[in-house]
Each structure stands twice: as C-alpha cells, then as structure tokens.
Design brief:
GO terms for molecular function: hydrolase activity, acting on ester bonds; nuclease activity. With about 150 residues, this protein is α/β, with parallel strands linked by helices. It has helices at about 35-50, 70-85, 100-110, 115-135; strands spanning about 5-10, 15-20, 25-35, 55-60, 90-95, 135-140.
C-alpha cells in the first residue's frame, strides 16, 4: 500500500488531499494559504509529519491544448522544492480540469459561489490524487528557453 499527499498548487493557496493506493479514495486535508514560502513549507512539513506519505503528487496546470504556461513552471518548481526539502518521490498529474470538476462536485452538493472558496482547493487536490490513482502521471515541462532554473 502506498500513501500519498496531493497538492493543488496555486500562487495564493495550496489545496491538500490524502489517500492510499490500496483504497483509491482521496480525502481532503487542508488548504494552505500563506504570505511567504517559509510559512507555506512549515505548514506543509507539519502535514507531511502528520500523514507520513510515501509519495507526493503535484497537479500540473496546463493550457487546454496541453502546453505549459507560467503556473506550470511554478508548479514544477514547487515539486522540486518538495523533493529537496522532504526527500520523498514527487510525481505530476495533469490538472487541467481539476478546479472545474471540483467546482461542479461542490455545486452538486449544494455548495455554490463564494461558499466554495474554502473547500475548492482541497477538492481539486482530491481530483489530482484520483488522477494519480488512475495512472495519469505526466512529465513536468522543461524550463522555457532563456529562463534560469
């Protein structure tokens, strides 16, 4: 059995979900909103300590045509930092439709509009983790030309 933590990376907030490959059912954990990276990673460290995952799954935002954009590169860098700080395997999952699917799932449960904000990132992380359960692993994009790593 492999336990995982999934991250819906965003510049303002990071949704987190957990689950095991044996059960294949994701569960929401928390949303991390922090002003600076040190605070974000301190909160992530606490979550990793609590849940003890075997693997970290990062959602990779891509444009509708599958091409990377600015946030794709930020998500890749986030995954690299996770690996560097916690020495756990990091895999990436295509998350093009995770936020839309999360919003639809919340709508279906009666949570609409502004009320979705607190749960949306966690539900998107659950969608990302479900993608990992389903084997939807992708390679992260390379650096754009002329960009330092």
């Amino acid at each position: 059995m492999t336990s995982a933590l999934a991250f819906d990376f965003g510049e303002a907030r990071i949704g987190v979900a957990t689950g095991s490959s044996e059960l294949g059912i994701p569960h929401p954990v928390c949303t991390i909103a922090a002003v600076d990276n040190d605070t974000r990673f301190a909160r992530i460290a606490a979550v990793i300590k609590e849940w003890q995952p075997d693997v970290l799954v990062v959602g990779m935002p891509l444009s509708l045509d599958g091409e990377p954009h600015k946030v794709s590169f930020l998500a890749r860098k986030f995954g690299q930092r996770l690996y560097g700080r916690f020495n756990l395997p990091v895999v990436y999952v295509d998350e093009r439709f995770s936020s839309a699917a999360a919003s639809q799932a919340l709508n279906e449960t009666g949570v609409k509009g502004r009320k979705q904000k607190t749960a949306l990132d966690q539900v998107a992380a659950m969608q990302i983790l479900q993608g990992w359960f389903d084997g939807a692993i992708i390679e992260p994009p390379a650096d754009p030309p002329g960009q330092p790593d």
